[in-house]
Amino acid sequence: MGKTILGDIKLKNFALSATAAAVLAICQPAFSSEIDDLKAEIAAQKAAAAAQQARLDALEQRLNAAQAQPAKPATTAAALKTDQNGGKIPESPAGVALYDDGNTSLHIYGLIEATGSHANHQTSGGGSTTGAQVAWFSGNRLGFDADHALAIGDRIGLPGLKVISKLETEFELPTGDMDTSDVFFNRDAWMGFYSEDLGKITIGRQNTLTRDFTASWGDPYGGADVSLKEGGYSNVNNFKQFIFYSGGANGTRLNSAIEWKKKFGAHVVAGLGFAFGSQGAGGSGDVGNGGSAPGDFKKGQTQEASIALNALPVGPGLLSANLSYDRANVNDLIHQSELVGGNYRIGVFRVNAGYAHYTAEQGAGNSAGTRTDNSWTVSMSLLPTPENELALGFNEMKGRHAGFSGGGTILNPFGSTAGVSSFANGSKKAIYASWMYHVDRQLDVYLAGDHFKVDGGWVIGDAQGNGNHFGAGQTYNNETEVAVGARYKF
User: Fold this and answer.
1) 178: how many CB neighbours lie within 10 A of its CB?
2) E strands along 265-413, which residues?
């Protein structure tokens, strides 16, 4: 019986083992399939992640490249490869480009100059001034140039034709005031057209034509050659008044003017200018700054003509010279000037000289008689090194029968002489000198000075403008000033 019980136990154990083995055999395929699926899913996700990372890496590389090299227009119109004066624009032009799509461009530019000075004889008791003044060399300015290429130019025989415009304001650094009260774009506000074949036509407020030509000899600081660019003399000192001989009915800038300048070959530049009268409203609420005077079309008009010869080889150097004529109707009185001058340069040395003949009717119907000036200037400059520039100059403004203003001083050329009732013969002589260090193309520092003396019956004011008068019957007939400053251009 014991054997039987033992056998039953062994039989049961065998049955249980066989059953367990059968269950394991049945379940094994299911467990194996699930693991394989999980492994496959993991592999697929890893592959997808790798592909996504590759795409992200590619996008980041494209972004970095775009930020490192800003996109430029694929093509630039030929008209936009020159500036508004026909000069070729370099690959890295000066100034700041605000917009350029290859067909239209807008640039901002400016000049900021700080000057400190000392001037004597500022009061009848001999008081002097020491401190800040309005810029000695150049008017502080902010301007905008806009150019737009015109495809029609190719169809009408004027390749490279473009419409151009300039808006430029002047401010005074010591206070931030406008140079001309209540006039924002007092230096330039014009539009026009340019191509090499047409030349440059400008319409609006701008320099007198002759000022841009005589700047090559009026002092040593203008460019040696006349170009299509505006230019002209220094700013606030006691010798720059020679510029007024290059004036018109509105001063040394013209309202409502049309000017044309053109280069003819390598050596000739010619120009014509006409300004409508601006004593009327012309649709503006500010009467006297726009349209012609009602019923008097000629009142306030200016006519100008200039021709220049540039860089003619003469002896060991280069000669540049120009001839100009101005005629203006200033309150129905005729003012005229003829100007001739030039410069000669040998290497780093340049000498300039010029002569101005000016006449002006005075008093209603010329009842006070005609003023006649015969004035001249000479100056020179030397660049002993590219950084150092030395200049020395002299001018004499000399006139007969020159009328006094209501304030008791001799009127500047082209000033209104309608109210003249007294006059005098006399002159003003001025000598000046400067040293300028060109730190780089954008920054200059300088030391400068000038001295003037009044002779004969003339009485004048000075550049400081503190109200003291100089000349006949005054405490002083002379003044000396010195100035230091820095000029930054962008």
Assistant:
1) 14
2) 268-275, 302-314, 317-330, 333-346, 349-360, 371-382, 388-403
Q: Which of 293, 353, 357 is nearest to 329 (CA)?
A: 293
Q: Which residue has the tokens 């006039």?
A: 183
Q: Which residues pair with 430 in a beta bridge?
A: 395, 452
Q: How far apart are CA 355 and CA 310, in angstroms?
A: 18
**Residue-level length of the chain:** 490
Question: Are 250 and 207 spatial neighbours (Cβ–Cβ below 8 Å)?
Answer: no
Q: Which residue in the block uniquely carries the two structure tokens 């699926």?
A: 37
Q: How far apart are CA 102 and CA 123, in angstroms?
A: 58
Q: Kindly state the average pLDDT of the residues 26-37.
A: 60
| pLDDT confidence of residue 134 | 97
Using CA atoms, how far apart are residues 174 and 367, in angstroms rounded to an integer? 43
Q: What tokens does 430 get?
A: 């001025």
Q: Which residues pair with 433 in a beta bridge?
A: 392, 449
pLDDT digits (tens, 9 = 90+) for 39-79: 777 777 777 777 778 777 877 777 776 666 544 555 889 88
CB 354 within 8 A of CB 327: no
Using an 8 Å Cβ cutoff, are 118 and 130 in contact? yes
Unique residue bearing structure tokens 């013209």: 254
Distance CA 166, CA 38 (A): 73
For the structural domain made of 78-489, what CATH number should be given? 2.40.160.10
Contacting residues for 165 by C-beta, under 8 A, at least 6 apart: 145, 146, 190, 191, 192
- Output the pLDDT for position 394: 98
Give the strand pairing for 478-489 and 104-119.
antiparallel
On whether the CB atoms of residues 339 and 310 are closer than 8 A, the answer is: no
Strands (E), 139-223: 140-149, 162-171, 188-195, 199-207
| Four-residue CA torsion sign, 438, 444, 449, 450 | positive
194-204 pLDDT, tens digit per residue, is 999 999 999 99
For residue 105, give the nearest of 187, 163, 66 by alpha carbon. Answer: 163
**CA 450 vs CA 50, 106, 432: distances in Å:** 77, 39, 4
Distances (CA, A) of 281 to 184, 287, 475: 18, 4, 43
CB-CB contact of 451 with 479 (8 Å):
yes
Q: What is the DSSP letter of 134?
A: S
CB 273 within 8 A of CB 302: yes
Encoding tokens for residue 446?
């300088």
Cα separation, 275 vs 285, in Å, equals: 20
Distance of CA 197 to the CA centre of its chain: 24
Query: Does residue 476 register a pLDDT over 90?
Result: yes
Neighbours of 50 (CB within 10 A): 10
Please tell me the distance from the alpha carbon of residue 50 to that of residue 58, in angstroms, as a whole number: 12
